[in-house]
Amino acid sequence: MEDTVFNKILRKEIPSFCVYEDDKVYAFLDITQATKGHTLVIPKKQVTNIFEYDAQTAADLFSRIPKISRAMEKAFPDMEGLNIVNNNRELAYQSVFYSHVHLIPRYSKKDGFKMSFTDNSARYTPEDMEQIAHAIHKEVEK
């Protein structure tokens, strides 16, 4: 696996601003601070993206997110919302190829962070939706 900036942060070769750490997870401020308190949460077991997680690594990481999120809410009383973002692979805007989850506090619609989705519902009939759901369901059941 690639030696990334996050490996170097875990080895303390690069400084970071830690907000939470235990034996399975490390959470620290994102250097970009898209909004005040923007935090990254990484598993200490290196995986490149969500497609490499085993059940235990996923449980270790994702079970800590509510605790860290509640701490952020208490630390920033003016926080009105929180985006949880996980980008996987380059096309999905992953830039560091060590899996990480962004916790992005939201303070107002003008806080500098935006997400948007195109409504493509007109492109899909109910039959199309059924085929899509079936294809995914079939693979989940394996």
Question: Could you characterize the architecture of this molecule?
Answer:
The chain has 142 residues and is an alpha+beta fold. It has a single domain, classed as 2-Layer Sandwich (HIT family, subunit A), CATH 3.30.428.10. Helix content is 28%, strand content 18%. The protein is built from four helices and five strands, in the order αβββααββα. It has a five-stranded antiparallel beta sheet with strand order 1-2-3-5-4. The radius of gyration is 17 Å and the shape is globular. The mean pLDDT is 96. InterPro entries: HINT (IPR039384), Histidine_triad_CS (IPR019808), Histidine_triad_HIT (IPR001310), HIT-like (IPR011146), HIT-like_sf (IPR036265).
Major β-sheet annotation? 5 strands, antiparallel
Any idea of the CATH class? Answer: Alpha Beta
In order across it, which strands form the biggest sheet?
1-2-3-5-4
Low-pLDDT parts are none
Number of strands: 5
- Average predicted local confidence, pLDDT: 96
How much helix is in the residues?
25-40%
| Name given to the CATH homologous superfamily | HIT-like
CATH architecture field: 2-Layer Sandwich
What amount of the residues lies in strands? 15-25%
Question: Which descriptor suits the 3D outline?
Answer: globular
Order of helix and strand elements from N to C terminus: HEEEHHEEH
Total domain count = 1
**Through-space gap between termini:** 27 Å
What is the name of the CATH topology?
Answer: HIT family, subunit A
